[in-house]
Amino acid sequence: MEVVALAPASSHFISNGAYTRFADWRFVHRARLNLVPLNGAKPWLKDVDKRCRRCGFQQESLAYVVYHCPSFSHAWQLRHNAIVDRLHKALETKGEVLSSNQAVLGTSIRPDLVFKKGREIFLIDVTCPFENRKTIFDSARSRKMAHYEPLMPIYQAQGLQPHIVPILVGALGSWDPQNDSFLRRFMSRSYLNTFRKLCVSDSIKWSRDIYIEFLTGHKQYSTSEDTYGDPTDMPDIPSSSESQFVLPV
What we know:
The N and C termini lie close together (11 Å). The protein is of the alpha+beta class. A four-stranded mixed sheet has the order 1-2-3-4. The chain is 39% helix and 10% strand. It has nine helices and four strands, in the order ααααβββααβααα.
């Protein structure tokens, strides 16, 4: 809830349910409070098997289920893609989208979008970390900045002004207010307000579908959609203490 409180858009659906399915509504409130029937979500029980029922990882926490369990890596990418697609559509009329998920200038680095406006180049990367603390957003943003830093001199040598733009939307629908400094340049206030809500609801939808498939074994979606993102850029597997959803004190 610490991260949810950072932006009103993270809870936009509470008053009217906009852009949110009933199934997502039922899921997200319990998920944000960690009131879910998972093996590792009951720390007060000592003598129970807390391993992941799908892959055997030591701690079946909500963070592990919706963000780390390799059984659902394709669904992680589809969650990510939903937000990348919205960004692409929003930006394509505001400048030039040079590439989507393509290696840049002979390197192996693949931004989700490379967007050009005048002499400025924006290397955009979307990530959906599991948001149990604000420090998770901070560290995810720092990792993205470091990952794309080697591209800066390449663009600067061409007389361009490169910028690294991480876009963070939590796996449980928390919106990072730091996204707004870039988006405000290319979206009106009303459009950005709607855009935030749609991205939040997209992330919740996909996390709910991953969670239900994890519990039931029944896939909640049907798509042959290609995936964006560097396939080697996988989330770090947390320790058992890190993977447990932590409530602020």
